[in-house]
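G., before I forget:
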Amino acid sequence: MKQLFFTTITMSLMLLACEKAPKPNQAPNNETELITTVVLHFKDSLMSTQTFRWSDIDGPGGQDPLIDTIKLKALNTYDLSLDFLDESKNPTDTITREIEAEGTNHLIYFESVMSQLFIQTKDKDANGLALGLMSNWQILGPGIGKVRIVLKHQVGIKNGDPNLGETDTEVEFPVRFY
Amino acid sequence: MKHSLFIGLFLLLASYIKAQNGPCQSQLRIILLDSSSQQALHFADIEFHPQVENKIDSQGHTIYILECLVNYDLHINHLDCEHKDLKVSIQSDSTLVVYLKHSEHSLLPFTFKQRSSRPDANQINQLQIQRNKGQSVGYLMEQLNGVQLIKTGQGIAKPMVNGLFGNRLILLNSYSRLEGQNWGLDHAPEMDPNIYQSISIIQGAKALRFGADAFAAVIQMLPISVFKPKGKAIEGEVNVTGISNGWGQQAHVHLGSKVFEKRYMYWQISGSAKQIGNYTSSQDRLSNTAQKEAQLTAQLGYKHKHSIYELLASNYLAINGLYTGAHVGNISDIQKAISAERPLYKDGLKYNIDAPKQTVEHHFYQLKINQNGHKNSFEHILSHQFNHRQEFDIVRSSSAYAGPSIAYFLKTIQWQSIWQNKHIPKWPLQLGINAKHQINSYQGYYFIPGFKQNQAAAHAMFEHDVNRWHHEGSLRYDWQTYTIYTFKHQTAMVREPISKDWSYTYLSRYQIGTKQSLQLSFGKQWRMASPNEQYANGLHQSLASLELGDSNIQKETGHFIQIKQQFQSHALHFEAEAYWQKIKGFIQLLPTGQFSTTIRGLYPVFQYKQTDAIVFGLNTFTHWHLGKNKTLSHQLYAPYGRSTQQEWLNYFPSASHKFNYAYKRNKLLIEAWGKHVSQQKHYDSNTEFAPSPKAYTIYGVNIEYSLKKTAHPINLGLSVNNLFNLNYRDYLNRLRYFIPEPGINIAFKINYNI
């Protein structure tokens, strides 16, 4: 009789413990917001556009990212607008609008050692500090090199210093000016 | 069935005879000792007829008030023995020492043999647990021999013994293995220290019962026994603690009693809750470093004739904030943090915890049945655990999904049956079988695979005492099978490895004279590679690295030898333990030298690899009684780990010393302590982002005062950690690149006994 009493208590307590766990063979699914793709839209003075992409749709690890080579004409000036996308979601989530809306928490900057390239950020956030979604590229001559585009997340600490905050993207493109 | 008990009666120190108007009364203290190990036995039922009153003295002992020269019937009823009747009559203050032949029936694995109740390097008692109220369980374990902590910030502290931790260290909650994503370096044990009466390292052949994989040690946490109360009156305690660093608070209530006067049925409830806000280093308050911890535990116990039934249900919840800068972007961000003199993210005092953070809830249920007989005893244990761990990465924007990035669900059922028999004289034998069934699943992105695991094992253990020798040995055979569901390049794969092997331990101890003993033990242990070591694939945020498993990794097999010398005199207790372990196929995470290109930049790639390793070192423990009220103690830990290719193993503690001076008089105890940790020079610099921090020494003070000793005792405590507010970093804190260790911390405690 007493054994039954204890067994009943044990079984009921064990039932209470069983929460809704998924099955062990369930496929992974990433609900968190990822940036998988950076898209560069260049517009030249004749209003013709070129698009280059850096994308890693399956996230870190897995397949290597697909990286376009930026090919631009020397002795030209281009306006660049950037798009940040989460292509792991269906439909693709456009993160760019959020970066714009929370501009005071973001900073995009460009790094390159190529002397033929001169980049100037054009847009500003609500506090008047540079944002970086829109920029102007002056190509001063032909050459081959690299350019790095960095998006920093600087919640509450943005002051123009590119070294602050977390790096949300840091993508490097091979570059050819011809 | 009756057991024969040997009773010794000692009358000690009749210090004075009470001259009173009215009946003469004397005080009687009862000490129960195991007849072969001289070790104190606790939590016996002691009943006098006619009934007597009792009180608690300054050391926490129960003192019975008897009338002089009156005959009392005394019943002693201990956990693993039948009750026994004695007749007692005293005429002055006396101490009664009763020897019980306890160990022959004992199924308790812990029998560290020592001749007195001196401080034990391998056990933390309830007084020490009390002294450390407000700390999480890892910090308590740090007082055990050879234990250090590997931390991720302050709220997450994982024990390591002689340099080994995680899947090589078995933690027992009562008698069941704690199962909760143990592979994670930033996963602290899911136990709240408030419910325990002791935390001990189980040594020798007795440890093999709990697993073949205890390369480090088996540490057992025993909850306060449900059979402790003396009657139907509710007993227990209330503890309130205030913590200055982080302005934290903790409250703990523990209650229990007998359910019926005439039956041995008991209940117990323990509940505690703690919160600490953002804490400070010596100079800055660090952003998002708050923590919260709570538990609720209930026990039911019943003793009837030769059987004991115990049911334990425990629920634990912890939320830990990870320092805001912990989830960096990439390797250049880590380098910026390392070169910064002060932490980059500071904040005010806040208790709310944002991402990055971890939450864990752990439910544990255990049924334990003991049946004791003259020649045969049985112990059956069945437990169920459910561990739900959620990791929250930093959210990019306020509209983004704010749920967990990964949630793990781990369900484990364990069963053990032990048969202890005494059919062969002087050769008590223990035979046992155990089984485990476990399911691990997750939601979110892939980091480790989901899997099912089944395990079964059988073991045999003997003990033999002859003249000055004590021998014990155990042999175990395990069979394990996994079904692992991995995803690689979006393709699902199923793997079903099976492993089986023998393991054994042998220990011999020789008593030299009356004060010294020398002990030798050796054995073989093994561990199958865990699913994360074979199939991990993902970013480890707080270490800015990509971790990959290797499906070719098989098992680790270790052989160890340990020599221990103990000396115990009236004034001095000394023990030294030297150990050497060779682990073939030692699995560790090593840099591949390659980098993975991710959208956040370059991440170094680390992969699990097997090598052959040797772990060796020395631990010493010394305790002096300097005078009537003064004691001095010292501990040295010096572990080393090296692969056979002559490279040092990573995350190994450096040598450290601890000193403690204590002065106790009447109601007051004052302790001063110091801890020196040397700089770790033995590591592979290719695996580290920054050189190891320099050596440091921190100091602390502990004061305890018994405000009230009789009726409902009240004890006050004040402890200070990092007394001189030193700014220092610890090699074993994985966030040392970003933040230093905490500055000065003062905890004030009130303990009220019901």
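The two ends of chain A are 91 Å apart (CA to CA). The mean pLDDT of chain A is 85.

More on Monday.
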